[in-house]
Every structure is written in C-alpha cells, then in structure tokens.
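job 3f2a | input accepted
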Amino acid sequence: MPTKRILKDAEFGRIVIRTHRAARNVTMRVKSDGLYLTVPSYSKTERILEAVQPFRERLLESFHKIAAKSFDYSYSIQAPCFHLYLRQGSLKHFTVREEGEEMFIYCPPQTDFSSESVQSLLRAAIIRALKRRASVCIPPLLSMWAERFGLTYKKVRITATRSRWGSCSTGGTISLSCYLMLLPSHLMDYVLLHELAHTKEMNHGPAFWDLLNKFTAGCALQLRAELRPFHTKLP
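job 3f2a | predicted structure (235 res):
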C-alpha cells in the first residue's frame, strides 16, 4: 500500500515522498508547492535525500520558475490584454470589479496574506476575474475570425482549464481557456484560429497545417513555436 512522507525543506518548502511497490528508482518532479518524489517501498529517508542531492540545483531552477507567487497588495498582472490589481476595500469579503479596461480585487480590511485560506480565496478571485474578462473579450474575437474566413462553430465556452489553451469538439463547440488573456494578442489570435481550423480538420495532419497557414499568412509553425514558452498559469 502506498505511503506518504512530508519533509520540511529550506529551499523547496516541502518534499513529498510517496512509495510505490512498482517503483525501481527514485523519480523526481517539482510542483508549485514543493518537490515530489516516488520511491521504491521500504526506502530509507536519508538514502532518498542522498539520491536527490546531485540533482538539487537543477530541480531548484525548475521549482523557482513554477513556484506559486504569494498574493498581496504588491501583486498585479500586467499582460498585454489584461490588467489586474489588488486593493484594500471596505467590505468583509473579497470583491471583483471591472473598472474600464482594468480589473480590481478589493480585499477586506486587515486581510492576513500569510493565511493559506486567504491565498486560496485570492487565487480563485483572480481566476474569476480572468474568466469574466475573457467572456467579454474572446467570443467577439472568435466570431470576427470565423466570419473573416467563412467558418462556423456551434458555441464557445470559456473555461479555467490549465491543460490546454483551447479545444474543438466534433459537435462544433470551441472551448477556450481564460488564461488566453495573459498572452500577447497575436498569440491569442493564433490559438483562436487553430481551434477554428479544427472545425474543418479535426486532426493535426498536413491538411490542417495547410489550412492554418492560410489563416496566418504562412506563419503557423512559427507562431506555434512562439507560443511554446507560455503556460496556463498565473504570473
């Protein structure tokens, strides 16, 4: 039966060790909340940490890139298509407001930003703000591109999925991640055109890329490569 050990660590915050009877070696994976290890059954903690040591520096580099950033009044999002700020409010609950082209999250007075529950509430509020803004901005943009290239789809859904930027079902429903709002505008357009191309070509075969190249003036592969370093996560 799998077991789990959680160790405090000065650099990763925590190291989570899980045993698995099928494991033959130590496997290592960094997440935003620590280092996760899968090890063979009956592995001793000190031996596990010795195995990690040669890889620690490289793992830390990856961890620092994905570690969740704490939210407080200094936090903001300054993406090309989305601006968000945290401000102190007067109510006893968190409030999301849209003011012109900017989004604000108003926090209760004396908010304790060191609280894990507060951090979770703020993360949910930020994602709610992203979805709200995306629901206003993205559907008209998708409709504009579809009309320009004579394409049709059944409906569009705005989600908070982090597994992909978008998808297109065989029934013609296009689902788009609210995290698109964090992309440069030309890459957002590329994702929308990518999904619209799937209304004609459901796979990623040569016909699909020929079609997408027509939509992007021959730059489909270049745009795909440019999109690759971006991730569906909060900055």
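job 3f2a | The CA atoms of residues 77 and 155 lie 29 Å apart.
job 3f2a | closed
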